[in-house]
Write a structure and sequence with these properties.
alpha/beta; TIM Barrel; six-stranded parallel β-sheet; two-stranded antiparallel sheet; 45% helix; globular
Length: 254
């Protein structure tokens, strides 16, 4: 899709619905990111999501270099537009809480965790490396829940989760971890657009059955700062997890 086609599509979406429209931006050069962000704002985007993904393939590039480039990009875009800007991150960063705090200082209003890396497939017969596309699976949600639960309460920007969200239960987990926004894409391709209504209905039923008056009553209740035992979020839980698995296997044998 060319830039002009995308912008026209954005305008038509804005005219057709009353809900906020979030523009998704991919760029190649610093100037291109800023220029297209301005165009998207003019076309009617209520907010902009920067789909950033920088993979270090050169050994001379340090982690500080990669973070510095990202922060510079975010600062440039947020200075150029008035609408809120969120940053979709990869899982490759070493200290995610520190980086997210810096993104907040750079002007970002939200972070999206995480961008999915589409790994290339290796064909050993033709000796080709070709791109492949696979829909997300619910199992991919776990690291996203983990980091949202760690970030919640330690930064002021919005936390969004994307990748592996397929059901009402998945959405509820995201909110309980601390997310304020939950994104769903693969499930809609698999089950169709009507799946949104099913997810919302299932969520309402779950909340009403447990006498919650609002979804926000659950937000952050399973975050790291809210649970009594934080070992589940830390390395110290590693041995405990493996031991519990061995114990289950022993019990099953009897």
């Amino acid at each position: 899709m060319t830039q002009d086609v995308y912008l026209e599509h954005l305008r038509k979406c804005k005219e057709a619905v009353k809900i906020p429209i979030l523009g998704s931006l991919n760029g190649a050069t610093p100037g291109g990111w800023v220029r297209f962000a301005k165009d998207m704002e003019q076309a009617g985007a209520d907010a902009i999501e920067l789909n950033t993904y920088a993979l270090a393939t050169d050994k001379s590039h340090t982690s500080a270099d990669m973070e510095g480039q990202l922060l510079k990009l975010v600062s440039s875009v947020t200075a150029a537009v008035k609408v809120p800007v969120s940053v979709k991150l990869s899982q490759s960063f070493t200290s995610l809480p520190h980086l997210v705090a810096q993104l907040e200082t750079a002007g970002a209003r939200g972070v999206v965790i995480f961008n999915r890396l589409y790994q290339p497939e290796f064909d050993i017969e033709t000796l080709e490396v070709r791109p492949t596309l696979h829909f997300s699976k619910p199992s991919e949600l776990l690291p996203r829940l983990h980091w949202a639960a760690i970030l919640y309460g330690h930064v002021d920007l919005d936390i969004s989760i994307t990748g592996g969200v397929h059901s009402a239960e998945d959405v509820l987990k995201c909110i309980m971890a601390g997310a304020g926004v939950v994104e769903m894409a693969s499930a809609l391709h698999i089950y169709g657009i009507d799946h949104i209504k099913k997810v919302l209905d299932d969520m309402r039923y779950w909340l009403e059955k447990r006498e919650y008056t609002s979804l926000w009553e659950t937000r952050g209740c399973l975050s790291r700062r809210s649970v009594p035992d934080t070992s589940a979020f830390d390395r110290g839980n590693y041995i405990k997890t493996l031991s519990s698995y061995s114990l289950r296997q022993t019990i099953a044998a009897f």
